[in-house]
Recover the amino acids of this structure.
């Protein structure tokens, strides 16, 4: 859960019910403009299959978006050219050169200023250093981890692994906890967990293939981790956030606008 939002919004006993209702109300607010962008992009060539599809797994439904980085470029956004946080999907660049945007999702936890609370690398520059502190909340449920991209390659590593191996990273974001570590569920994620929230995360199928998922309905950490390991065949996966989890997928006519957000990951067709 985003660190500052817990106290601001989720303190209410009715917050979960309200968030669900508001999500349904706002989910289509900016979809029309994004659909237009997608359709304009499609006119420049033969439309490819959508990278985002609906997926059922163990009684829950999800949207799963899969990207081969040889066909799609992934990048992170935090601040615009004026130094102001993008804060949402509506201000993201619709194109990178001639390539249209096909996907966007919140990409890690942030504070009240919309600044990442952990490592953040954009265009090869370290804008926030790795956070190895101990504390309360999901981010500090160690091991937490780092998702990174470098051209046509990507990775999901624990924070300790990333800092030790020092992989080349053009973009990177730190979040937590890890969901799956080398094929095993995070040791502190329990099967008897009762906390259910809308959740989103990212996993790695191979060095070129990145898989994002967001639940359509509240799920437990255990169910979400199993989705990545057993349903999506990702040996390493990272939790990105819960409750405020948001997706923009123009082909699905969906662009969530319920919350301001910090770092955002977006995909563009190469």
């Amino acid at each position: 859960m985003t660190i500052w939002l817990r106290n601001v919004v989720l303190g209410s006993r009715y917050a979960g019910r309200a968030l669900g209702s508001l999500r349904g109300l706002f989910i289509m607010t900016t979809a029309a403009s994004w659909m237009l962008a997608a359709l304009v992009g499609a006119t420049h060539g033969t439309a490819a299959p959508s990278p985002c599809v609906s997926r059922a797994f163990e009684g829950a439904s999800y949207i799963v978006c899969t990207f081969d980085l040889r066909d799609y470029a992934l990048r992170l956004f935090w601040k615009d050219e004026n130094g102001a946080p993008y804060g949402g999907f509506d201000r993201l660049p619709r194109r990178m050169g001639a390539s249209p945007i096909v996907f966007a999702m919140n990409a890690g936890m942030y504070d009240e200023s919309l600044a990442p609370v952990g490592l953040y690398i954009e265009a090869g520059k370290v804008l926030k250093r790795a956070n190895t502190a101990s504390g309360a909340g999901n981010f500090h449920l160690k091991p937490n981890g780092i998702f990174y991209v470098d051209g046509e390659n990507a990775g999901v590593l624990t924070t300790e692994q990333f800092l030790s191996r020092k992989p080349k990273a053009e973009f990177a974001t730190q979040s937590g906890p890890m969901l799956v570590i080398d094929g095993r569920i995070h040791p502190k994620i329990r099967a008897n967990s009762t906390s259910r929230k809308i959740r989103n995360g990212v996993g790695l199928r191979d060095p070129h293939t990145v898989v994002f998922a967001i639940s359509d309905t509240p799920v437990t950490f255990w169910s979400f981790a199993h989705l990545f390991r057993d349903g999506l065949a990702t040996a390493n996966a990272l939790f990105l956030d819960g409750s405020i989890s948001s997706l923009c997928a123009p082909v699905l006519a969906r662009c969530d606008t319920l919350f301001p957000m910090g770092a955002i990951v977006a995909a563009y067709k190469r």
